[in-house]
Amino acid sequence: MKFSELQKKYQHFYAPNFQIKVKGKDILKEKVEVFSVTVNNTLEGADDFSFVTSNPFDLGSGEFTYLKEGSLFEVNNEVEISVGYGDNKNLKTILQGLITGVDVSFPSNGVSQLTVKGFDFSHKMMKEKRSENYGSSDQPVTYSEIVRKIIREQGYKLETGKIVDTRERHRQIKQDRESDWDFIKNKLANAINFELFVFGKDLYFRPPASDKSEVITTLKWGQTLFSFAPEVNAASQVREVEVRGWDPAAQQPIIGRGRPADLHGRDRSGSSGAEEAEQGVVHHVWQPVSSQKEADDLARSILNKISEGFVKGNGECIGIPDILPGNNIELAGLGKRFSKVYYIEKATHSISASGYKTTFSVKENMI
Fold first, then answer.
1. CA neighbor of 364 nearest in space, from 349, 345, 346, 342
2. Is the whole model's pTM more than 0.85, yes or no?
């Protein structure tokens, strides 16, 4: 989307606005005074939020107005936060989740403050550790079937329509004293270079977006991009990844390989971290794998994960609700090496008396 289209969509970025709903109620309409709101969106765990309210303590009754039994800010109450510009109808929802805690401040001067904090719905998947076996010789299962089964049977109340089907079937996958989140993230998603995150009430289990043509917008330094600090780090890069396993039926080793041609970069004209790595540097992994395809998939996934650290950067711009992890963004005016399409891995949206700004972290494996 062109930046001019974003300007039109968001009222030329005039009059920053937000809406916080708790248990379906707009808290501003409930006479709650909110100083500031911050939402952190990420691909690497649960999104989190916080907002600060003033005068939470009623001197007359000697009680916290918003912390009474049955009040708005009880732990586990559902929260929905939307941000943008102008009327509430133009706002974009960037987080749905649960209140997990509150902090109270009684300063030596000024008014008391209450900070409400919480996480998105994936937080529940990270708490309990359990063990489970999935699949058998008679009924092999795919990774996507396992993810759907966990969401359905553990009652997480998440939608599964964003789970991308996988094809490879496995006779046995073991969850061993792990949270459901860690199991899906580490043993399933990482094995096939998939992402795992929650946005709203949708669970995403999918390959990273890599189509260069699909970008949120283009930000140009000195105009729409306030600042950008890129970093190139080839120290941890490897030329190749080799995964070694054993086939007990055939009594022979299984060797999977990931090479530079397997990388999923957005800049096809650039060179990857693997290509920049010293010739002959191979990362060896010994891992139980059941097929050649599983070994190759794992090797490619590991190489992509290592290469993601080749180019990283942090930027800041005017508040743009569309800047969210899992999307591409183009940055311009940064010279030939750094003007390119990047993948957003983190974003922070902050609104206060000083306005609405977005900071973000991006990555790319080619330069």
1. 342
2. yes
